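PT: before anyone asks, these are the final sequences, not the draft ones from last week. 485 residues across everything. Please model them as a single complex and drop the result in this thread when it's through.
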Amino acid sequence: MQLKTPLYDSHVACGGKMVPFAGYLLPVQYPTGVIAEHMAVRTHAGLFDVSHMGEVMITGPDAFANIQNLFTNDFTSMVDGKVRYSPMCYENGGVVDDLIVYRYHQEKYLVVVNASNRHKDVEWMKSHLFGDVKLEDCSDQVAQVALQGPASAKILSKLTGAQELPVKFYTFKDPILVGGVSCIVSTTGYTGESGYECYCAPADAPKLWNMLLEAGKDEGLIPCGLGARDTLRLEAAMPLYGHEMDETITPFETGLGSYVKMAKSDFIGKNALEAKGEPTRVRVGLKITGRGIAREECDVYAGGQKIGRTTSGTHGPFLGYAIAMALLDRSFGEVGAPVEIDVRGRKITAEVAPLPFYKK
Amino acid sequence: MNAPKELLYAKSHEWVKKLDDGSVLIGLSDKAQSDLGDLVFVNLPAVGDSFAAEDTMCDVESVKAVSDVYAPVGGTVSAVNESLIDAPEAINKDPYGAWLVKLTDVSGLENLLDADAYIAVCGEE
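LR: through. Structure below.
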């Protein structure tokens, strides 16, 4: 059975083409189409429903010690009002999920996880808690919209009056009244553009959605679906769980080493990651130089030898060419190296490209 | 949805236009292009390739996914619309103008649907 987000009716009213995703019915695109939605975010602004994401509150005197143990990043230097990205690993070094952590204070953290991993994550975290700490899955009490693109600040400030919005990347404020709706507002996103993610009560979500669309009407804001969300994150080379990382891929292989703090005294997965040492395969970008589009799970070859496989791929609407990310044997991962990708039995040429493909 | 009366259609959403010399042009219906979304790549067959009806003839890719295009009738490719290689979006803009392939030695035209029957089939989907 597919769940509906609080914005389901708003999507249908906007002409959204609804598809099942991570247990929810979400718009893959609106009548504008993926390319127009993608370009709107790069040049003006786009509005996404990301209410399917999971939200978990970790509170209590031992909250800090627990997140230090559960997640691979180091939260020691984190100040109140900051947001930090981190993988969460199994004991064997594979990835349970990647997530972002909002620090309210030493004893209160909001953790935002992938929708498809929510229940698995909550189970995993709960079974590894220690000391005086409480973990609450509040996903069903939270709706979320992402306002992304260069016009985002102008649009949001129309609805927030004299209140000070978070400015620095990966920070948040709670509460901010957006047109009277109480929200957590953070300078985060999954598009490679500046923008905001706004969390509110489910009952307020349609009002927030409509107010933002109205406020952005003259700024080129349009609603955007999952299709554009994927092409935007791919151009920005942001990894996606289940593609660039999963329980069989370590964060080092995904290129997330800067979010794994081996100097930390301990965290789940540290011993295994230490034992594995330098990864033998690495995530690389591929620019398709031949004709065609490589999607996920295509074999990659160099000189007739199989050297890895693609993890995601698409046509990059802003770049104007096809791109893919792949896990390749590290000796073939040098930028500029020519490779071939097997796309349904046809070999197409590509070359290793620097990541991210797109940077604002 | 838009389905011109003068064309014939397959349930798999290709259209067929009969030409005076007995050959046919084949393209994707308005519903097909709408369902696929923004097209960004067309992989056309080679001139001289032969197909039976319902064979996979070529494929088209939207931003999101790849889709096979089936031969709505049997025949041999006598021409392909090479302008689509650099401008696949023409299929979205003008689905009944942007033909994909031209077939000769055509067989199986009698199995195609007229516009009304095709619209009815789409309504049942």
